[in-house]
Amino acid sequence: MKKVPARREGLVKVVLKSGKDQSVMRYHPWLFSGAIKKVYGDPAEGDLVEIFDNKETLLGTGHYSPGSIAIRILSFGKNPVDDGFFAGMVRKAVEYRRNLGFNPSSGTSMFRLIHGEGDGLPGLIADYYNGTVVTQFHSAGMYRSRNTIADAIVENGLFPVHSVYDKSMATLPGAASPVNENAFLRGISDNPVEIEENNLRFRIDIIGGQKTGFFIDQRDNRKLASNFSAGKTLLNLFSYTGGFSVYAMKNAALVHSVDSSAPASALARENIILNYGNTPNHEAIEADAFEYLGGTQGRYDMMILDPPAFAKHNSVLGNALQGYKRLNMKAIEAIRPGGIIFTFSCSQVVSRENFRKSVFAAAANTGRRVRILHQMGQPADHPVNIYHPESEYLKGLVLHVE
Hints:
Layout: E1 12-16, H1 22-25, E2 30-32, E3 36-40, E4 48-52, E5 58-64, E6 69-76, H2 83-99, E7 110-115, E8 124-129, E9 132-137, H3 140-144, H4 146-154, E10 163-166, E11 183-186, E12 193-197, E13 200-204, H5 219-228, E14 233-237, H6 243-248, E15 254-259, H7 262-276, E16 282-286, H8 289-293, E17 302-305, H9 317-334, E18 339-345, H10 352-366, E19 370-376, E20 395-401
Parallel strand pairs: 1-4, 9-10, 14-15, 14-17, 15-16, 17-18
Antiparallel strand pairs: 1-3, 2-6, 4-5, 5-6, 7-8, 8-9, 10-11, 12-13, 18-20, 19-20
Helix pairs in contact: 2-4, 9-10
């Protein structure tokens, strides 16, 4: 089993090519390998390195990686990166959520606590589930500081935290994967974890579920969908554990949740029962979403299309755009006249413009009249770093189909 190499004494010096310092001067947190002129030493994956321009001016400090993104910058200028740095950045992230009005006792006890580049901590995701925090580390360097980060999360002083679970086995790259196993860093909690979101109840499988256990980033969009669902016969495709379905059931006449995962479908049933008891107005269906959609002509007057990322790398961007086009074309063809479609892409490499073009092509191929009612994104606890547009990963459209 591979392990993260130990951090070396001192910091390796990395000098950039002439003119390649411009992205750093604009505070972009990623440095690509092609920008590097010389590395003075042999840094291991995850080592802290200092970044200099071609005139020997110190630009910042970041975590080194042998991949295309060679350095993820943590600190710009001369500010040191140490345990105090991480504790301070965690504190800022927590204060930001508290200032937004997040409070575990307010009817929403689930939110993103740390959002990578959006909070100045590239390579770190932390989600809050009613006192349990689930972390995912996406870089070897950030993983090395997991204990400092876990301590800072527990001692944040604003939100009660009784346990921190690290779920990084599937997210750490290169030499850092796999590292030991997913495990609690601090404390322990029951699984599933029960939480509230906008006064609706959910059971979250933090150990076996996707990502950290739930797709917190759709909170505002789930609420919006609930407003459209009154009296509707609704299809929730790629439903996972039924987030959109639970919201829709407040007003809808009938909801079908379709997912290929048996455990996810089982938890979707549980979440519906948790909020509404045994109701005939909901059914969780285990099926391939594309195949199921092909047999739904005229059956539904509202659809949710929230697929997993069709593209995680630019190399498959073309195929992903075709996938979004195919999915949306099938939905637009099948939905009843006057129907509503909520359609999403969570692929970081798919821009908002490209996603909209794919949906446009899908609509054009059907010949139906389609209007955009809303354009959606990620909520405030998933902030987009203005210097890092790549962190705007969630895109969505609300469509009206005549």
